[in-house]
Write a structure and sequence with these properties.
The chain has 7 helices and 5 strands, in the order H-H-H-E-E-H-H-H-E-E-H-E. It is an alpha/beta fold. It is globular, with a radius of gyration of 16 Å.
Length: 168
């Protein structure tokens, strides 16, 4: 396990503290630097927090289909792979994620679920704090709101943790 991976695990553990989480959301670069991650001065770090009705995803600068650290959700991993091959799809995924996912899967997402997609660049890194939820599937209400009444799309993330780029 790399040093950065261990630091991200420590951050994920410390996110259980509301005080630490608030400080991390407002000053991620400072906290990561204090914990030993060398972030170049020219790099900005933004943190996005999932909620019960909002999921955040990041398109990395580089992507390998088999890289589960980038997106543990198979659907979003598929969307990222397509975004790296198709600039039009990438633009749609960033600007209208629900439409892009519907285009990719042929299914719609619940109306009360918002999807935000960000793109990492060499000078801007996005980190996502996953929602605190034991469920990895949409709830009963969410499933009923999907067209046709049933959906195989599973978007909610794992318990509270941090998804971050492994290299700055």
């Amino acid at each position: 396990m790399s040093g950065q991976t261990e630091i991200y695990q420590q951050v994920s553990h410390r996110l259980q503290s509301e005080d630490f989480k608030n400080r991390f959301v407002s000053q991620p670069k400072l906290i990561l630097t204090e914990m030993g991650i060398n972030i170049p001065d020219a790099v900005q770090v933004d943190v996005h927090e999932d909620t019960a009705t909002v999921r955040n995803f990041v398109i990395p600068v580089k992507f390998a289909d088999e890289d589960e650290s980038v997106a543990s959700n198979p659907l979003f991993r598929k969307a990222i792979a397509l975004a790296h091959r198709d600039a039009n799809f990438k633009a749609e995924l960033i600007n209208n994620p629900k439409s892009a996912i519907a285009q990719l899967t042929g299914e719609s997402l619940p109306a009360d679920l918002d999807i935000c997609v960000y793109e990492n660049t060499p000078t801007l890194k996005h980190l996502v704090i996953f929602v605190d939820s034991a469920s990895e599937e949409l709830g009963e209400k969410g499933l009923k709101t999907v067209a046709g009444g049933v959906s195989s799309i599973k978007l909610p993330g794992p318990t509270l943790g941090l998804v971050a780029p492994l290299i700055f």
